[in-house]
């Protein structure tokens, strides 16, 4: 997070800033997820789980750029990932509790994920390299 007391300023809130950050800065995250080793599922899973804090940071930064109409939904997704990341440590001592907590968190965030996906596709278009079917 940027500190305004140290001369930093908040990023611009606009559709253009949101889309630029989502498809610009988000490209690195998408590339990391695309490079998951599918021949070794455990290694792939560890890689994806290791990206959870990074994805949460990305979403927090995206929420700073998002227009007010979608910012709370983006922040909700980021908070869900923060919570999930925090629960991963508890999974070693209470795997069933962590699983249940993660499931409940996922269900709570699913509405936000759907709304963010719809907003992004409507205002930014599909991710680069992906074509959407024409009706």
Task: Write a structural description.
- The chain has helices at 15-24, 26-34, 41-50, 52-65, 71-88, 95-124.
- The chain is built from six helices and no strands.
- Mean pLDDT is 73; it is low at 1-5.
- With 135 residues, the protein is an all-alpha fold.
- The longest helix has 30 residues, at 95-124.
- It has one domain (13-124).
- Helix content is 67%, strand content 0%.
Topology, element by element:
Blueprint: H1 15-24, H2 26-34, H3 41-50, H4 52-65, H5 71-88, H6 95-124
Helix pairs in contact: 4-5, 5-6
How many extended strands?
0
Low-confidence stretches: 1-5
The biggest sheet amounts to: none
Compressed to H and E, one letter per element, the order equals HHHHHH
Which class best fits the helix and strand makeup?
mainly alpha
- Total count of domains: 1
Keyphrases for this structure?
mainly alpha, 135 residues, globular, disordered N terminus
What is this structure, in a nutshell?
The chain is mainly alpha-helical and 135 residues long.
